[in-house]
Amino acid sequence: MQIGELEIHLFTDGITHVDAGGPFGLVPRALYEKYFEPDPLNRVPMTLISMVIRSRGKTILVDTGLGTKLNPREIEFWRLERPGGGLVRELASKGIFPEDVDIVVNTHLHSDHCGGNTIRIGDRIRATFPNATYLVQRMEWADFANPDPRTRGTYLDENFTPLLETGQVRLLHGGTALSEEVQCVVTPGHTRGHQSVLLKSGDWRGLFVGDLASYSILMSRTSWLTAYDVDPLENLSTKQIWQEWALENDAWLFFPHDPTMPVARLRNDNGRLGLDAVEEAQELIAFAPIRRQPGG
Ligand SMILES: [Zn+2]
């Protein structure tokens, strides 16, 4: 889809099914099940969405899904399905090949956002995108390099360390412009060094939200926080800042895990926030089914 000088596409690395206690944390089931009805094992669907942005001749990929280095036990754990064949296959279906990617932005280094950074070839791990520079916040890398018992299971060396060794990483110190239209912005809370990607074209504004709000409903319900947030209160206040920005700019918000409403605008109904799916964005998702959400 073309928006002024910007070209944007959404892809998925597949869809997972995770215990609802993860994405909905302390939110009572009676509230969230109106939006995501868990299956009999209490699992809810979680899409792995990546964005490709073309701006000023650069091809930028935001987040890379779980990737292909998973063993059968991990595939079973995630209940991973790949109707589109996975990220690299989906990119190729639009004529985007790994060597075409100039920049990879990782919102953060949890394995469902950077697993596709690297691939296993024989017994070696290599960059999936051989010509790309990979961008991550320095704070995120510091936490990745020094995991604690809570983050150790998701900060996996193989997803990032090999890129440091080949000199393909640029660590960012805070907000960073990638072009006139594309900017990394720090959105702390889910992790301390989490970043989102801000898009501008004329008066149009967009934000690849990342896990600041994995699902659209987590953006409109300020107090709904995931169990994965390292610093929940920080995430809450970051969310409030971007809620205000989104309302002021009537921005398109791109959510990384939402199978039913991956692109939405926020609206303010007399102080209560709601969501409207962005109908024009339906063409952006090749393989994820888009359904309307009840209420909002
Ligand atoms: Zn995530």
What does this structure look like?
This protein has 296 residues and is of the alpha+beta class. It has a single domain (2-283), classed as Ribonuclease Z/Hydroxyacylglutathione hydrolase-like (Metallo-beta-lactamase, Chain A, 4-Layer Sandwich), CATH 3.60.15.10. Helices cover 21% and strands 30% of the residues. A hairpin with an 8-residue loop joins strand 11 (182-186) and strand 12 (195-201). Bound molecules: zinc ion.
Q: Count the helices. How many?
A: 9
CATH fold category name: Metallo-beta-lactamase, Chain A
Strand content bin: 25-35%
Bound molecules: zinc ion
Distance between the termini: 25 Å
- The helical percent reads 10-25%
CATH-defined superfamily: Ribonuclease Z/Hydroxyacylglutathione hydrolase-like
Computed Rg: 18 Å
What is the topology, as strand order, of the major beta sheet? 1-2-3-4-5-8-9
Average pLDDT metric: 93
CATH class value: Alpha Beta
Globular, elongated, flat, extended or rod-shaped: what is the shape?
A: globular
Structural category: alpha+beta
Largest sheet: 7 strands, mixed
Regions with little confidence, pLDDT below 50 for 5+ residues = 288-296
How many β-strand stretches? 16
Order of helices and strands: EEHHEEHHEHEEEHHEEEEEHHEEE
List keywords for this structure.
single chain; 296 residues; alpha+beta; 7-stranded mixed beta sheet; 16 strands; 21% helix; binds zinc ion
How would the blueprint of this fold be written?
Elements: E1 2-3, E2 6-19, H1 21-24, H2 29-32, E3 43-55, E4 58-62, H3 72-78, H4 87-93, E5 103-105, H5 111-114, E6 118-121, E7 124-127, E8 133-137, H6 138-145, H7 161-165, E9 169-172, E10 176-177, E11 182-186, E12 195-201, E13 204-208, H8 216-220, H9 232-249, E14 252-254, E15 263-269, E16 272-277
Parallel strand pairs: 4-5, 5-8, 8-9, 13-14
Antiparallel strand pairs: 1-2, 2-3, 3-4, 6-7, 10-11, 11-12, 12-13, 14-15, 15-16
The protein binds zinc ion.
